[in-house]
Design brief:
253 residues; alpha/beta; Glutaredoxin; 2 domains; four-stranded mixed beta sheet; 11 strands; 24% helix; globular
């Protein structure tokens, strides 16, 4: 048995993902399908990025949802997934965090009156942090109960998340091979790291300037940005011991 088998998602669940214009991701996996998750994800961004208020304007323009349910007629698990056009390019990352394979993501119809680019741009002065990349991929594990009191969201890592790992994975486009790399790496990180981490996936064709900054000349390349010193692995990311040595993580075999 694979010693790095990652924590499985439920067989049936509702998954909701919220992106920022800068490419950060917060998401949830809700087996009960009853939480007011869009509000929770907005509140999470407010807390982490120290925003003046929850960025509700991101919904639905920057969201993706996945619903997996048991068909009572066939007794088969069925899946429906859709992403709005502004985040459709992230479907390989969505497959990795929701542990889905080869599903057909649908493009959700864009409500133009809400997601008109000129309108969204008006929020940039108030929420400049949302247009920056912070290398965040964050799972929120519990819904927020907010009657009168202002409870904080239950984020799936400690408050002092900057003490964890900041990683960047450079790839050449999004393909089936990219998805396999994401799934294997996510599995390893989930089971091997005792500290929180953020993982940013960067397509060198879309962001060549970032590849130049991080001195990436081949893909796939995994870069550990933090903690220092900066280290990287080029090529095969299936070597568990090699990845753990690069991370300086316990559990090297």
């Amino acid at each position: 048995m694979n010693p790095y088998l990652k924590r499985s998602v439920p067989s049936v669940f509702k998954g909701i993902a919220l992106f920022t214009p800068g490419g950060d991701l917060v998401y949830c996996i809700d087996p009960g399908k009853q939480g007011r998750w869009h509000l929770n994800l907005c509140a999470t961004l407010q807390e982490i990025l120290e925003l003046p208020e929850p960025p509700h304007f991101l919904v639905p323009c920057y969201t993706a949802t996945l619903d997996r349910w048991l068909d009572s007629a066939t007794r088969q698990v069925r899946t429906f997934a859709e992403a709005y056009p502004l985040v459709f390019r992230y479907r390989a990352l969505l497959d990795a965090v929701f542990e889905t394979q080869h599903i057909n993501w649908q493009i959700a119809p864009l409500p133009e009156e809400v997601c008109e680019p000129a309108l969204l741009a008006t929020y940039r002065a108030q929420f400049p942090q949302l247009w920056e990349s912070h290398d965040l991929v964050i799972r929120v594990d519990s819904p927020i109960e907010r009657p009168e009191s202002a409870h904080r969201p239950a984020i799936a890592f400690s408050q002092n998340y900057t003490q964890g790992y900041v990683l960047r994975l450079f790839v050449s486009g999004y393909s089936a091979a990219t998805q396999r790399i994401l799934e294997n790496l996510h599995q390893l990180l989930e089971e091997s790291l005792s500290h929180p981490y953020t993982l940013k996936v960067i397509d060198i064709f879309t962001h060549p300037e970032q590849a130049e900054i991080d001195q990436v000349s081949a893909t796939p390349t995994l870069v550990k940005v933090y903690p220092r010193p900066v280290r990287r692995i080029v090529g095969d990311l299936n070597d568990v011991n090699r990845v753990l040595r690069m991370l300086g993580a316990p559990g090297e075999r």
